[in-house]
Batch of 2 targets.
Target 1
Amino acid sequence: MKEELLAIALKDPLASLDDAKAKAFFDKYGSIEAIEGKLRLPNHVTSVRHVWRDHELSNEEVAALKDIVGVLQKTHAQLLSAHPTLAGILSRNESHFREATADINEPIRVAVTGASGNIGYALLYRLASGDAFGPRTPVILQLLELPGALNALQGVEMELRDCAFPTLRDVIVTDKPEVAFAGVDYALLVGAQPRSKGMERADLLMKNAEIFTVQGKALNAHAKGKDTRVIVVGNPANTNALIAQRNAPKIPPANFGAMTRLDHTRGLAQLSEKLQLTSTTEIKNFCIWGNHSATQFPDISHSLVFKNGQWKSLREELNDEAWNQNTFIPDVQQRGAAIIKARGASSAASAASALIDNVREWHSGTTEWTSCGVHSNGEYGVEKGLFFSYPLIFNNQKWNVVPNLHMNAFAQERIDATHKELREERDAVAKFLPKD
Ligand code: NAX
């Protein structure tokens, strides 16, 4: 068995590559598709999982499987600097391998509010199938809806069960926040009051302030506690996160987030297209600052792009500041509106996908910058306590704001504008904010 398992690892031509060989390998196969086809990476992963599932493994055999993970981890580290595109693909496989050899973890309880809505429908199947927490971590979904949407949610539950996902341990459907939030490790607050015709932004803020006050209090009383993470998607996301956090004093403020991960991926996708890159993993150090609204600042000032075997300044490679200021930034800021215009409904699958990315990164960590609205400690001159999107690195289920970035006058002006909007939103909902 051990020989058989090691043969799986060693058959992988990437397994023994050093930097020079990695480059030669890429030169030879030319494209990512060709490499993926040649390596048959998904089959590779499946075969390891079948071995694990179908055999009672001895300690020695488990050690052999762990060797495979070690080889993949080493390969990934070698390739990270040599070829970021390939490294992006491998990192997913490496984490699958790591999961494949891990013990089965305790189930994670995940509450989702607004679960029968558009985003919920695209989100739940990915949560249940292991996309956020990996294939060896069971999940229990605790789904909250308004009473009028419970029937629809029961249909969603039936479909979830029909998928027979090995990672789905249970589904709870309810219209009671105290049931949905009982003992949860993660709460994904997606449901919110939509903006109806003729409704002013101020009315929308107030309606949602009521919802997120109730949900913050229920999280405080019923969630797992200081280890619970709460990510707010429902708009206005940053201010809703602030209200929920202030009403849940038992949960550390740093455990709350407001989703700007979709703005982040929208930016990466547009840059990748403009620069004609093979993959979005050929860009790093991109981020979203501020509010998830039209004042957000998608910032390429510090970004790098992988060109001709090296990381270079994206701004210099782009060499088109007019495009950045007049096309790119407004397009990312207005992307949600453009999707509503085209689709007749707001972003749902992309929002769900960004939320899966957000949860996975929070849970398992990141090596590169990502974006999320978090409780400011005053970084970059932002008022303490506001939920402000920053460039972040996640590690051990905690985030750190990327420090010491130089801001030019243009960037500072943009950050000031979105900061001002967030202060105004906070002031408008002041009566819903118990002291921090
Ligand atoms: P839908 O209207 O399709 O679904 C929302 C669901 O929430 C409905 O089923 C409704 O019954 C439920 N709901 C409302 N109030 C509730 C409450 N108090 N408790 C439990 N459930 C409640 O909206 P959908 O397209 O799924 O969007 C959900 C939210 O995400 C909206 O506020 C939307 O603006 C926001 N978005 C945020 C994004 C972000 O990047 N942060 C991007 C996508 C999206 O626009």
Target 2
Amino acid sequence: SWTMHSFIEANVQAIREKVGNGKVICALSGGVDSSVTAAIIHRAIGDQLTCIYVNNGLMRTNESESILRFFRQKTKLNVIDVDATEFFLGELAGVLDPEVKRKRIGLGFIKIFEEEAHKIGEVQYLAQGTLYPDVIESVSFRGEAPIKSHHNVGGLPDVMKLDLIEPLRELFKDEVRELGLELGLPEEAIYRQPFPGPGLGIRIMGEVTRERLEILRQADVIVLEEMRKAGWYRKVWQSFAVLLPIQTVGVMGDGRTYEHVIALRAVDSRDAMTADWSRLPYDLLGTISSRIINEVRGVNRVCYDISSKPPATIEWE
Ligand code: XMP
């Protein structure tokens, strides 16, 4: 559209003036905000931009692979990738408290990101996909990329002393999507549901272990497959599985089972500040439930979360 076209022109110009010959780094998550941020900055300054993708081991099934394949095959971005799975799972061992999990993941991310920035050397700018809702709700909004979460703390890590470039600061998510399409990003990148920085780490209630990650991944991939198949993936803001920290009794054949519970969460929203649970068709809920119970070993019960935000949040932690 004309508006997006002139938005791009103005921003490209402003980024060029600000950056000059400097170097910019950007943390890519695979999500629409950081992808669009990288795309517009790349349009302005090309290879003065280096993107860093950190796999924290908390991604959905095959997601890191597919994100990296996408950037390498479909964009001209210069992307460094770091597999920090071992490090993050180590940081999370024995941690039950949701806020401690978030802190460890956030700090871990900064540490890894900073190491990579040092290897690049002489970086002056940090690009972030901050949106308008993040700006106005910056105190209470939990949905921040981890890198932003310590801005007010003394003794800042080096990457946070960098000058910020935030080209999306005035936009809502639907406008970011429009911008991304205008910049030539394919629909698969644009219509990806939001995914939190701490990933599956905050969708596993209680301790994050490899075994529990595996259960959640298997359930989650079924949710996404069935949502897509039924044409509901794009109709909702987010849809995902959560692994609960309890076991419940069930029956199989003539034996008693005592296994895990998966909660399904699907919400409608414009900007994540408020949300309502999605009125998914019963048949779709039924299909998802029976597939999870039949196909995911160790799960014998599925529940649907019918809470709105507020007073609940979208994520469970
Ligand atoms: P809540 O759970 O606060 O989530 O209703 C609002 C939106 O933000 C996402 N979210 C995050 N995104 N880092 C992120 O990048 C985070 O730490 C984080 N926590 C929540 C959540 O998925 C929802 O879209």
